[in-house]
User: What shape does this take?
Amino acid sequence: MIPVLDWSRFTSGKDRDGFVADLGHACRETGFFLVSGHGIPQALIDRTFAAADQFFNLPTQAKEPLDIRKSPNNRGWTAHGSENLDDSKPGQIDRKEAYNIGLELADDDPRMGQPFRGPNAWPDLPGFRDTTLKYFAAVHKLGVDLHRAIALDLDLDEHYFDPFLDQPLATLRMLRYPAGKGSEGEIGAGAHTDYGSITLLMGDGEPGLQLQPRGKDWIDVPRVPGAFIVNIADCLMRWTNDIYVSTPHRVLVPRNPRRSLAFFLDPNPDAVIEALPGTGAAKYPPVTGAEYLKMRLDATYTEKVT
Assistant: This one.
């Protein structure tokens, strides 16, 4: 039900049409697929997981100055119990902590001060910044490249999405879920859909991620070592006029500690999200990438810190 797609079928030129057809089917049916053959070195993935471990193992008092609720730019540390992704269960708090990194800009970059543009909140850990930025750049490129196949599936120019994603409101989110018994009412991350265009997730092999296809019960997302789990998010569903599906997913409380690296590829802040050519009468009014992201984030955090 959740296909594993070898990206080298597209990049090698040997089976571009077949890859596009398989991707298009997955985007319309489950909204989830796995990508192998992506070319991102396993060594870089391992170093990024190690950097995340370094950060999460810091004492709470060392992480508190980086609290994301102090940031207007969605950057920094999300403390355990500060999010509720399932807005249908207001009393349910997610059992996880996270750390967000956005597009890195120089202090004098003219984009500073634009919506969700600002400095990253870096911890004082040797090599942390360099490693995570290298990973950010590699997965950003893969995400943009995957949109080439998406464009072809939608009968658009192969590079249609390039100018909408070159300066994105993308977020690399490192996550840690503590082990638990999974008692009734406990959840690692509540049922939700993602906000942006696509999400590229690298897990550590620990199970827990589930999705709920339309009209069906929850199913486990398979783990394929080295492959990214990719899902369609709400902005792309809106962009395609509901041709693609953004599928609810959740994370159960793991039996063992669980870590993941989630890359949320949101469009540029000034990108206008409206029905793509050839998708019929628009079901939604136009909205910019920044407007849409703000609307979704405002509903997520359980409290603000000043």
